[in-house]
Amino acid sequence: RAKELGGRRVEVFAAHMHADVVRRLELAADLQRALLAEQFAVEYQPVVDLATSRVTAVEALVRWWSGGAFVPPQQFLGAAEDTGLIVPLGEWILREACREVAAWRASAWDIGLSLNLSSRQITAPRFVETVEAALAESGLPASALTLEVIEEMLVEDAEEVIARLSSLRALGVRLAIDDFGTGYASLALLRQLPVDMIKIDPSFVSGLGCDETLTLLTRTIVRLGHDLGLIVVAEGIERPEQLELLREMGCTRGQGYLVARPMAARGVDSLMRTNCTPLQNTA
Ligand code: C2E
Ligand code: MG
Ligand code: MG
Ligand code: MG
């Protein structure tokens, strides 16, 4: 009887697994087709200086409309990573975003680019060269590019990831820790990586003004970042009181739906005209 039950359980499990495998394979095939058909797009979410409300940078966010329906990045990035498609996709995003931000800078707006990476991209052969080539090709200065990393990237191949990011930083590229405060080793990461910026996770920002502990933690992270000489960006600002508290805490920069939603390049074009700091003409 026990054997019978066990057998059935294996069968149910196998059927379940089968459906899951098929779904993943279908998703992988869809992604491959989408990449070839150039169905991906990049949107840009403005990051503002909280003291002046000026846009200082944009964060590139990948977008996929599959058969007209929007698929959130978190629904396909896992499959893109597992299949290795994140490498050509990530390279396309890198080039596209460098090109567009370089064009905005060429119209004399002082704006930087923030780019999310996955560990598979960083450890891919010639990653450092790929970034160098994208910079050279677009004319974007290395100092205008910030690479965002999360703690989970250092779980595997930590030495390799750190070595590559350090090489890029030596070229002048900036490094940011994304989703700061949510991992187990956020503080340890600050010692392992030569970081320029931390991005406070929305789970802290969401509690500003309504949750005493989260407010206190946010204040502490802002102070910690400043004491370490880092740029501190608050993510997920949705309500005016969050913005007020962050300003009062002296947080340097902010990002969130209240400030601006992610938008297509055309949207940034019009924003630039009204909201950016002109590049200093040093000639
Ligand atoms: P992330 O890097 O932390 O990006 C911020 C996410 O929060 C974005 O979601 C953005 O649309 C969303 N967001 C911004 N402001 C607000 C707000 O006020 N409220 C709320 N509720 N959400 C806000 P998105 O675009 O869905 O991206 C999710 C994650 O997917 C990103 O988190 C990043 O980890 C990853 N991702 C996105 N684009 C790329 C990419 O090009 N390459 C890689 N490797 N990862 C990417
Ligand atoms: Mg990010
Ligand atoms: Mg984040
Ligand atoms: Mg995130």
From TrEMBL:
Signal peptide location: none
Residues annotated as domain EAL: 24-276
Record has Transmembrane as a keyword: yes
Coiled-coil regions, chain positions: none
Biological process per Gene Ontology, one example term: regulation of DNA-templated transcription
UniProt superkingdom: Bacteria
Keywords, in A-Z order: Membrane, Transmembrane, Transmembrane helix
Full protein name: Phosphodiesterase
Residue window of the full protein shown: 587 to 869 of 869
